[in-house]
Amino acid sequence: MTSSSKVYFEISIGGIIQESRIIIELYEQSLPQACSEFIRFCENKKYKGTLFDLDIAGQFIQGGSFHGAFEHNNEEHIFSHDRAGIVSKTLGTTTFLITLSPIYTDGFDKKHLVIGRIYSGMEILRAMSQVVPETPKIIIDCGVVSKKERKKQGKRKRKENTESKERHEFGEVESEKESQKTETDAPTLPPTTLKTKATSSENDDINDIQVKKKRKKKSTCHSNDKKKQKKQHHDAPAAHSLSSKT
To answer: Which of 60, 63, 72, 230 gives the lowest tally of CB atoms within 10 Å of its CB?
Structure first.
């Protein structure tokens, strides 16, 4: 997929004029007729003063309605609304829509011809979708991004991508350092403590052994007492006989 021309919209939300430019990158080489017509509308300021009059929360916003219609509606539908920031024109009108999330509704791709994507300014569109529906959202200016400005936009975009990549890599390094620090700082028990610290099951085993020893000792004592009594009982008649003789 090759992209070329870019157009811009200056947006006013609730009558407040602020830095709110969105730039659309058009798939001009894939869809030359539809894109050239969209470029012509922007170049001739046809969208200036028009509203974003339809806001389907979380799905898409639609705007650009004025007296007229797209002439070229017979180009093949190559692309789909499979992500946020997709720009498509509504067949038979001058309106266009911009997705806020992927749309997989049956027949949606056939009713709307995808002609480009948001190059910058997606945060503005999300802000628009969060204000109350009655708040006016107006295109106060539109046009084609000049080659000089496109070069500046390209440099800015590359710089942003590089900074984002550096922040991501720095975040990963910091996360790894923090993980290593956590592992290093983890408390360790001395070997003597580990040896003397018994589990509950080990304590139970020790108690059982001690009880068995006590029972064995008691049984041995009882057995010795019986033997002693038996011997005394055996020796008693002999002693009685000896005393009788004397």
So the answer is: 230
